[in-house]
Amino acid sequence: MAIFVADDTGRYIAVNAYACDLLGYTRDELLELPLSEVAVSPTAQEDFDEIQRTGTQTGLTVLRHSDGSELPMHYRATRTTVGGMPLYLGVCWPIDD
Questions:
Q1: Is the pTM of this model over 0.90?
Q2: 2-94 belongs to which CATH class?
């Protein structure tokens, strides 16, 4: 599963190796991208807003590969706090899995 950790502004602060491989980015490249450039489904911002409000969200999204192609994915995301800082952990896996 692809794992993404974002801060409350939607900036990735951690990703696993599978997320990098799946999307065709190096870790450093992926950490430079905001969530809005990777999660490109029409409801991505509303979904992130919902996670911030309610603490959890499950659904479908579309992730953009480095070559511009789009990958439909399942996801589950949750809000947590580490050292007093709110963080958002998202786990994604391909729809066909």
A1: yes
A2: alpha beta
